[in-house]
Design the sequence.
C-alpha cells in the first residue's frame, strides 16, 4: 500500500508548468504526511510500452500456456495495476498535447485498464497544463478532449473523489500571438498552485 502514486508526464523538466504545480502539491503532501510511501513513475524518463497483441492476449491465456514474453508483459501490466489499486491517493501531472493526453500517458492508461482487475479506492488528483484556454466563451471552447476523458477513465474504475486542477494560457509569452495573455497565464498558474496545495492538505 502506498500513500501516493505519482505519475509525471511532461518532458520539459524545470521548464514544465505542470511539474511546477505538482511540486507544490508534493511539498505540502510530504509535510503533512511525514514518512509517506510515495511511488513515482516519470513517464518522460521511463516510458510505458504501448499495448500490443501479445500483451492483450496474455490476459485471456491460461498462465501455463503463456510464452515467456507473454508472462513478462502480463507481469509488468499487473504491477502497474497493483500500484493503482494500492494507492491511497493518485496524482497525475500532465500537459495537454493536441487537445488530448500525451501518448505516454495514454499508454499507461491502456496498461492499467485491465477489466475486472483495476479498482481505484483512493483520491485522484489530475494537474493539467494547457497552452491556451478551452473554457466556455473561448474561441476554441469544446476542443478540450483531455480533462473530461481523464475524469471518465478514473470514474470507470471506481474513483469517486476526483479533482482536476487546471492551468491555462501556458503558451502566453512563448507564442507571439498570445502576448496579451501573459497576465492571465500567471494568474492561472498561481490559482492552480493554490488549489494543488489545498488538495494536498485535505
Sequence:
Amino acid at each position: 500500500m502506498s500513500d501516493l502514486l505519482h505519475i509525471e508526464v511532461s518532458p520539459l523538466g524545470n521548464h514544465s508548468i505542470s511539474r511546477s504545480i505538482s511540486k507544490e502539491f508534493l511539498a505540502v503532501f510530504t509535510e503533512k504526511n511525514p514518512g509517506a510511501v510515495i511511488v513515482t513513475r516519470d513517464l518522460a524518463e521511463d516510458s510505458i510500452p504501448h499495448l500490443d497483441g501479445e500483451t492483450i492476449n496474455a490476459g485471456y491465456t491460461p498462465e501455463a500456456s503463456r510464452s515467456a514474453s507473454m508472462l513478462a508483459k502480463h507481469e509488468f501490466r499487473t504491477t502497474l495495476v497493483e500500484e493503482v489499486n494500492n494507492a491511497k491517493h493518485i496524482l497525475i501531472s500532465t500537459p495537454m498535447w493536441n487537445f488530448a493526453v500525451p501518448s505516454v500517458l495514454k499508454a499507461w492508461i491502456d496498461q492499467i485498464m485491465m477489466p475486472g482487475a483495476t479498482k481505484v479506492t483512493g483520491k485522484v488528483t489530475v494537474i493539467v497544463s494547457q497552452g491556451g484556454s478551452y473554457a466556455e466563451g473561448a474561441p476554441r471552447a469544446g476542443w478540450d478532449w483531455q480533462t473530461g476523458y481523464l475524469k471518465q477513465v478514473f470514474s470507470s474504475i471506481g474513483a469517486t473523489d476526483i479533482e482536476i486542477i487546471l492551468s491555462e494560457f501556458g503558451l502566453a509569452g512563448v507564442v507571439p500571438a498570445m502576448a496579451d495573455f501573459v497576465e492571465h497565464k500567471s494568474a492561472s498558474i498561481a490559482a492552480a498552485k493554490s488549489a494543488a496545495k489545498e488538495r494536498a492538505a485535505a
